[in-house]
Records
---
Amino acid sequence: MVENAREKKRSLFQLIGDVPTLVRELVMGEINLLKAELIAKLKILGVGAGLLLGAVIIVFFFVGVLLTAAILALSLVLPGWLAALIVAFVLLVAIAILAWLGIREVKKAMPPMPEKTISSVKLDINAIKGIGKRAKS
């Protein structure tokens, strides 16, 4: 029974010997958290950028339709240019919706800082310094 108690108690040198392993595990955990957080934010940025790209592509169609409307208006073919203006208005509404959705998605990922990782590293540093408490996971 005395031997079991001695096996559970570890010497100071054994505890100090474990420090590099514990620090390495802590650093690897923080790096993994950083990667996961950045990947999530980059995915959101990608969706927002894709929506904005869609809006830009539709702008090119919008310009073409407006040019067609101007040509038809100058030629005084009333049904033609009126139809072209209606199509241009519909495209303008689509541009506005896609641009609004894209901007909203980009704002979700801003700022692109790994906030959870930074907070966790600060807690780790404070725990190592003996300031504050480290939350148990």
Note: The chain has four helices and no strands.
---
Amino acid sequence: MMNAPRRNEGTAEHNRIVEGTQIQGNIHSPGDIRIDGHVKGNLSVGGKLVVGPSGAVDGEVRAHEASVGGRVIGKLEIKGLTTLLQTANVQADLSTGQLAVEPGAQFTGTCAMANRKTMATPADATAKKEASAA
């Protein structure tokens, strides 16, 4: 059993691109991925994307969640929470469910937030409905 593969059923699979590594091309990961190197290409991440302070991504990114501490240039489509850490430098069109920005983070581009789970009704419309029902 010495050569049996290790399995850890309690944790999800995740990948890491270490500092100093440069990748040119598209990456598809069903789990989480952490980037401390440089990726030039499109990323499709089934879990959480973490761009470390030394990490850089040039391209289109799709992920369930994202935490950015490095540089991202391109387009971000994040279903859930996007966190821009104080060391982040993002130049992108961002579409996300939720956004958290730490003081010091740099963001240039557009941001659209759409949380599909909760669609708020404007207070004016609610008041008009209640007034007409009375």
Note: The chain has one helix and ten strands.
---
Amino acid sequence: MRLKKHLLFSLGLFLSISVTAQAQAVKKDYYPDGKVKRTFDVITKNGKGAGLVTLFAKNGKINQMQVVNDQGIANGPFSAFYTQGANKLQMFGSFKNSKVDGRIVTFHQDTGNIEVVGFYRNGKKAGKWMLYDKNGKFVKSKIYN
């Protein structure tokens, strides 16, 4: 089985997560009520949940998608979604050693316009962060060291 996942983000940004390997199966974890809590696209390496992980809210909507290695450490792109109302993109960015690292973009739930553009370094805010109102108008910026 070939695993190939594509995530399309707003702003015309396209991120492709491609993993080609022999997959054992899609591993699933469940909430006590039987609804899916998390799925792993499991890749044959020590039989662990490496690859694309999808997290679900209790209402069944996708909450987050991320890439983890065979040690369960998040490394690579992630995207998070609003789970109330329309299941819209809330933010995207990347992890390094399970900490947010690199550029992050968040979106207003009601309009889908950019809310914040910022940067993380080793899980902490760094550099210039820009805030926008729900109509996409620049509001302010802040510098983090």
Note: The mean pLDDT is 82.
---
Amino acid sequence: MKKKNRIAYWVATVFVASIMTVSGGLAITHAAPMMKALAHLGYPPYFGNLLGVGKLAGVVVLLLPGVAKLKEWAYAGFAITVISAAYSHFCSGDGLMALDPLVTLAALVVSYRLRPENRRSAAGERPRHEKPDREREFASAS
């Protein structure tokens, strides 16, 4: 992995992990600003527990070496969470604030695309330099 890509991966990954750790911590501790924000978006107080535990668990998986298959789930869960946050803000009339979560989504995509080989799931993924073998794909689909 090129040094530039490795640095970009870690900057994006640490950014996502930081955002999710802070917001997850605020949610699980029922901090007043988080509870006010969840209420504004129409979510019940217990949703903070679900959100907080999910975010903190995802951060652990994202930063933990190995566990590539679980990382796929963490990336997917974070993407769903961030897109849902943007949609919730939009539907609650927050205007341009609805775009704020998309910054985290952009960092999440950068982290996902630039992750090192040892942080990738082997199932269904081929190296970027390898072209698909259409005949083999066709034969396995039959």
Note: The chain has a mean pLDDT of 88.
